[in-house]
From TrEMBL:
This is Enoyl-CoA hydratase domain containing 2. The lineage of its organism: Eukaryota, Metazoa, Chordata, Craniata, Vertebrata. Keywords: Lyase. PROSITE patterns: ENOYL_COA_HYDRATASE. Belongs to the enoyl-CoA hydratase/isomerase family. GO terms for molecular function: lyase activity. Transmembrane segments: none annotated. The keyword DNA-binding does not apply. It comes from Equus asinus.
Length: 417
């Protein structure tokens, strides 16, 4: 089953900017293995994740994984993040792989849990909505290369970057996505050769094979790859953010399925972008930078605009339609739950001009030519909710399209404007 095209739940949560840390001045941040820095000025929109575990050469341990997962969860909510750049604060090292010394102290059950968390972290990096870039100025071995492979783009120093999935030389095998992402990057035969032999590659060799996008000559400061990665991020910044994100979705999801299903995914993403462009002709739920995957019907009459969870109690119009396109039916249920909770909370008491909320959805399900229709819902005073999903299948691929339709009736003494 395909992973979600986007997380509808995250898009409906009340938005809060991430409180980023300036690692050079914040004492609390200096003690963290993962530090986050949002760039300013002409680089505003670029956010850096600095890996800072010098004594262990940025090895992937429990604290490292926990802090990186925490940072990713917060950054996903921050619509100011246009490009996410991974770099090392330790000279000569990107990431030396899993912390084997720490692993030796774990029980077999603890090792299994840790490896699952490590895979989950790599999946979170790969699924990050904005483009991600890895700057490899030093060693990226084992799990370090797997982290770089989870990023969209990779830049390496030609001479000082050394990378490889070397687990077989230590009686192990790649366990954080390397056996899956490396073949998708280089092809099956070449990936097998590199994994079977545990071969290490320089930045120049990696570029020739297509493992990295760019290989640059190292400078005296030892951060040439970082500067090239930052320049690459600057090239992405002026491009339309919604178009960039939808392009990433189309490519990533299309690589998981056959060509026919991939073309259908591209069509869905293309249609989404066209509808965003048409938004200029009418009002929507959210501000433009927060409207990533939410669409209003062109004919929907609105009194004003707002963002769910921020100003929805006074700004949602009558018979307002909100569509959410997603590949996973569970995303709709999450979105419906969150929207229902938010509306109930915002519309209660003196802060509301409305007596109750109704969130109503029709649904149909088509699978191999058989179509089922119906409606279901939950409700609690003073609001009621029905929800559903609409999806169809193309071969083994699941392509649902969800529609949420909130309707807020006025009080008897309110003018219908």
């Amino acid at each position: 089953m395909l992973r979600p095209l986007t997380s509808a739940l995250r898009l409906l949560r009340p938005w809060k900017p991430l409180q980023t840390r300036g690692c050079a001045s914040d004492e609390a941040a200096r003690g963290r293995e993962i530090q986050v820095r949002a760039l300013e000025g002409p680089d505003q929109g670029i956010t850096e994740i600095l890996m800072n575990r010098p004594r262990a050469r940025n090895a992937l341990g429990n604290v490292f994984v926990s802090e990186l997962l925490e940072a990713l969860a917060q950054l996903r909510e921050d619509r100011q993040v246009r490009v996410l750049l991974f770099r090392s604060a330790v000279k000569g090292v990107f990431c030396a792989g899993a912390d084997l010394k720490e692993r030796e102290q774990m029980s077999e059950a603890e090792v299994e849990v840790f490896v699952q968390r490590l895979r989950g972290m790599m999946t979170e990096i790969a699924a990050f909505p904005a483009p991600t870039i890895a700057a490899l100025d030093g060693f990226a071995l084992g799990g370090g290369l797997e982290l770089a492979l989870a990023c969209d783009l990779r830049v390496a120093a030609a001479s000082t970057a050394v990378m490889g999935l070397i687990e077989t030389t230590r009686g192990l095998l790649p366990g954080a996505g390397g056996t899956q992402r490396l073949p998708r990057c280089l092809g099956v035969a070449l990936a097998k050769e590199l994994i079977f032999t545990g071969r290490r590659l320089s930045g120049t060799q990696a570029q020739v094979l297509g493992l990295v996008n760019h290989a640059v000559a190292q400078n005296e400061e030892g951060n040439a790859a970082y500067h090239r990665a930052r320049a690459l991020a600057q090239e992405i910044l002026p491009q339309a953010p919604i178009a960039v994100r939808l392009s990433k979705v189309a490519i990533d999801r299309g690589m998981e399925v056959d060509i026919a299903s991939g073309m259908a995914i591209e069509g869905i993403c293309y249609a989404q972008k066209n509808k965003f462009s048409a938004r200029r002709e009418y009002s929507g739920f959210c501000q433009e930078e927060q409207l990533s995957y939410q669409i209003l019907e062109k004919s929907a009459p609105l009194k004003a605009t707002g963002s769910p969870g921020l100003a929805v109690r006074r700004q949602v119009g009558y018979d307002t339609c909100c569509k959410i396109a997603d590949f996973h039916f569970f995303a709709l249920e999450q979105a419906a739950d969150m929207l229902h909770h938010t509306l109930c909370h915002q519309l209660r008491g003196e802060s509301s001009d409305f007596s109750h909320v109704v969130l109503q959805v029709r649904w149909s399900r088509e699978y191999q030519g058989e179509e089922r229709r119906g409606a279901s819902g939950i409700g609690s005073s003073p609001s009621a909710l029905t929800r559903s999903d609409t999806f169809r299948t193309l071969g083994p691929s699941l392509l649902p399209l969800y529609q949420l339709t909130p309707t807020i009736p006025p009080l008897d003494n309110e003018d219908d404007q």
